[in-house]
Amino acid sequence: MAIWILINYFPVIYWTCSALAALRVFHEESRTIFVCTLLFFIYLLPPLLCRLTFLFLPTPKRRSPVPSKAAYSWWISSQLQVTYLRLPFLEELLRMIPGAYSAWLRLWGAKIGKFVYWAPGVVIADRSHIEIGNFVLFGYGSKLTSHGLVKRKNGKSYLIFSPIKIEDHALVGTLSGMGPGCRVAKNTTLPANAVLTIFSTWDEALGQEVKIPRLKP
After folding, report:
1. What is the pLDDT along the chain (217 residues), one digit of tens a residue?
2. Spatial distance between the Cα atoms of 120 and 129, rounded to a whole number of angstroms
């Protein structure tokens, strides 16, 4: 678990190095280059590093033991994203520009359709593993996380991981939440404050249909 703990220091190391590099540019170059350098470290390099992580390490499956290479790849990607969860105003700045936030999520590896509206306070824990259709609206404070950690018998832990899918013309209600493998069907509304069980589908015609996969112990 030593590697697991060391990876946890990545955000501090990354932002310290970024600040030092930006300060050097500030003293030696023009203000325009300084601003571009700052934006590069804040918004561009982390998603690119995340893409490289999943390129060279295996993507987590529905059930991956902890520790394992797949679990490490998720943990690295998680630390690359944690700054935006700690400092949500960084994402809110992008959401004020139409289309900018969706484009940024695509840079992480997400599949985002056209004309997606992101209300303030939306929380996405695994930006690389969400699939959003066209004309989707997210209500205030809705939460999406494609991972979960399950502890089994004999002290063994497993990472449960699967993309979240939200289909065309869906509305995700205020303060709602969904976890690994959840899906919101086309032309449906997930009610405010609703929380979906993992691997479940919300369809207004059927109600909430729970689909929990059988995981071997």
Report:
1. 677 788 888 889 888 988 888 888 877 777 888 888 899 999 999 999 999 999 999 988 888 888 888 889 999 999 999 999 999 999 999 999 999 999 999 999 999 999 999 999 999 999 999 999 999 999 999 999 999 877 676 778 888 999 999 999 999 999 999 999 999 999 999 999 999 988 999 987 666 555 555 554 4
2. 21
Give me the domains of the chain, ranges plus CATH numbers: 2-210 (2.160.10.10)
pTM of the model: 0.88
Which tokens sit at 2?
């030593």
